[in-house]
Structures are given as structure tokens and as C-alpha cells.
Amino acid sequence: MNKITLRMKKLIKSSSIVAIFCITIIGYAQEELPFERQTITPSQPTCIFHPSEYVGLISVLRSQEVIEKVASRVTPCSTIIVSYNGFTPEAEAAFQYAIDIWEMSIESSVPINIIANFSDLGPGVLGSAGPVNYQTVDTNLAPEALPNTFYPKALVEKLEGADTSPFGGSNDINANFSSTFNFYFGTDANPPVGQFDFVSVVLHELGHGLGFGGFGNVDTATSIGDIRFNGIPSIYDVFIENGTANPILSFPDPSIELGSQLTGEDLFCNSAIATEQNGGIAPRIFAPSAWDQGSSYSHWNESTFLPGNINSLMTPQIGPGEANHNPGPITLGFFEEMGWSICGGSLTVDDYSLSSIIVSPNPFTSSIVIKLANGFNDDYQLNIFDINGRIVLKESKTATNGTMNISNLDELDDALYFVKITNATNGSSITKKVIKN
Asked: What's the domain count of the chain?
């Protein structure tokens, strides 16, 4: 009996060791789960571009930097490959001119592939475009990207440094252009009265394909708004707030309340770089009282950035005789904030910018220190938001020699947060990403 008992004890002990080993392996595997990409394919393009009334002959040329780079035959900062369907030779030449501008404006080591169609789109539509899909980013490959956030496919590939298709060379952007409109195919940004500048239309639509546009939508029958796919927002949505600095992602989704925000004529982009490029004023988003599918929410405000403004390319309409061959500094600033690298270097400025503020440690555990380059002892409002836009901490602080401390953060969940730093005197604000672990 004793021998049997001893054997049983040994068996139980061995089984326990095996069980503990298995549990350890399972626990380790749970911590080291491989990245599982989520992908959503939009049912309609981000933009449907409409013509507006004639307001005069207006011309915005390429930036001087782009002109000089093209003239000196500098190697482009990105490579854009287009599959043309139905284009005339002159339409294709104008399209390539627009491609040259984008290649000298944004950086990517991964070729950007576009399928472009030239066909009858019906009355009142100059063009339409959008990303072929949106994907989450593998933050092991791109730690600067936000987890649990959808990015346009071309930007995912830029951030990860590789085509997300296992076969490579997959399409990134779908774009359609009208073959029946009275287009001007010249490249001098001087369309005559009555003609629409094709280069401007192509530049605009490719801007949407590269990521200018979010998930906000309103059901016009019920006034209910929604802004997430599978509970996940887009990177564009992360930077949109209303006039009282409430993030668009902080409103119930779906809800009539969210719908009223999307049609409240009171939305702005809080990107720090775009705001700096706009003279310290948050750029206004097009959010008319009547939801306009393909125009609302995914453009700069038409009445803020009037024809002839250097930042007017990404407004929802263009008139005959109007040309803009410049993506614009606030659009490029917003692109940089979303994750694109800008050809020629960052657009941040030295006064009050992302590069002049240090938040450390990052990742943090229980406290963070904010250091301002100016060294001033100003008063600041500090808000910490979670990924859904909820305020998890709100404090008023006075900087001491440009330094502020936020402590007692132990109870925050391990996750990504945004620290919004607002100068109480002049209203200047900036948002920094931090991670708690």
C-alpha cells in the first residue's frame, strides 16, 4: 500500500509539474499573441467631388519647394504607381503631373498603388476616391502608431515599411474621374472660364485616398450619427473635436447626439501641427446642418478656406476657372500628425510645437513630467483623454521654469492616452500621445 501511495504521489507531482508548465506556456502565449490585423472595406468612396459656381479665374501654383525639386530632378520622396483605365493621353499626362506633386510632398519607402478610372460618372460629379480599405497597424513594426485604430491602407504600409499584401503590389487607392466634364488638362494652373482644372481634381481625390477623411456618418432618415467600424475609429477621427474642445469620439456612438455634432457646423481639427500651420487656429471642418454624403465631415470648411486660399484644395467643391496645385500646409500638417512623413522634413515650428514639448517618461507608470522649451511660468489646463475621447484627468497647473508634474496616475488602465496642454493665458494648445504600462 505504501509503495502504491508513493507512486501515486510521484504521479501527482509529475502531473502537477506538467500542468504548471502548460499553464506557464499558455500564459506566455497569451502575452505574446501574434498581431491580428483588422481590415474594413468602405462601401462608398470617402469623397464625391462636386462643382461649384464660377467665382473668377483663381490660381494657386505648386509650392516653390516642389517646383525646385522637379526642376533639379531630385529623386521623389515616394513612388506612386497608377493603373489607368479609359484615360485619354492628355488626361493621363495631367494626372501624372498631379502624381509628381504628391510624390514630392509625402514620404514612403513603399510604393503607393492606385487604380484610376476615367468614365461617365453622371451629372454633377467631377470625381470620387478613397482608400481601398482601412487596417489596424502592427505596433511592433510601427510603435508610433495608435493601437486599435484604423489607418488608410497606404499609410499602414508606410508606417510598417512593407506592403500588407503577402504577394506585394496590392492596390491602395481607388479613384474615379468624369470623362464627360469640360476639363482643362493643362498643367499651368490657368484654366479658362467655363473649364474645370483636372490637375486640381486629381490632387484633391488622391488626398482622400491618402487618408483625408473619417468614418463620421449620419442617417438622414433618423438623424442618428455613427463614427466607428467594429467599435474602432479611424486615425482622422482621433483629431476632430467641437468648438468647446469635446472630441467627436466622446459622444455616444451611434446616437442622435453624435448626429447633431456631425451636422452642427462646429467641428475642428485639433492636430497641433495643422493648427500651427493655420496661424495657431484649429482648422475648421466642413459640417453643414444638412448631412451631405461624400462632402460632410471629410473636408476643410468651404467658407473658411475660400477659393484662392493656399489651403483650399481639400474643401468640398471647386469652380470652373479655379485651380489649386498645392496640397497646402495645414493639410500636410494634418497628414504628418496622422503618421505620414513630409518630404523635406517636419512642418512643426519652434515656438509651441510637438518638438518643443517633452512629456516623460513615455511609457509612464504613475506620473509624468511636462517640460516646455520656453521655460515660462504660465498657467496651464491639463486634460488627459483616453482613446474614446473621455476625460480621465483634468488639472490646472502653473509651470515652474517651464516644468509641470502630473502624479497619482497609478489607477489608470494600461492603454494609450492623449495629454492636451492648453495655455490659460493665450489659449494655445497641443496634444501629445502617451502610453501607460
From this structure: 2
Please give the residue range of the domain that contains residue 391: 354-435
Q: Which residues of 303-325 are buried (b: 16+ CB within 10 A; e: fewer)?
A: ebbebebbbbbbbbbbbbbbbbb
d(CA 135, CA 157): 10
Is residue 309 domain-shared with residue 338, that is, in the same domain? yes
427 and 306 assigned to the same domain = no
Quote the CA–CA distance of 133 and 294 in Å, as a whole number: 16
pLDDT tens-digit readout, 163-205: 998 777 899 999 999 999 999 999 999 999 999 999 999 999 9
Alpha carbons 388 and 247: distance in angstroms, whole number:
8
For residues 225, 230, 231, 236, the Cα torsion angle rounded to the nearest 10 degrees is: -70
Residue 113's CB is within 10 A of a number of other CB atoms, namely 22
pLDDT along the chain (437 residues), means of 10: 37 39 40 81 94 94 87 90 98 98 97 98 96 96 93 98 86 97 97 97 98 98 97 96 95 97 98 90 97 97 96 97 96 96 76 63 91 75 79 88 90 86 70 82
Tell me: do 49 and 166 sit in the same domain: yes
* Pair (91, 154) in one structural domain: yes
Q: Could you tell me if 299 and 420 lie in one domain? A: no
Domain contains 252 = no
Q: Dig out the grid coordinates for 155 from the structure.
A: 499609410
70 & 139 share domain? yes
This prediction's pTM: 0.77
Nearest CA among 192, 239, 194 for reference residue 215: 239
Whether residue 163 sits in one domain with residue 299: yes
Q: What is the CATH number of the domain that holds 395?
A: 2.60.40.10
**Residue 360 located in a structural domain:** yes
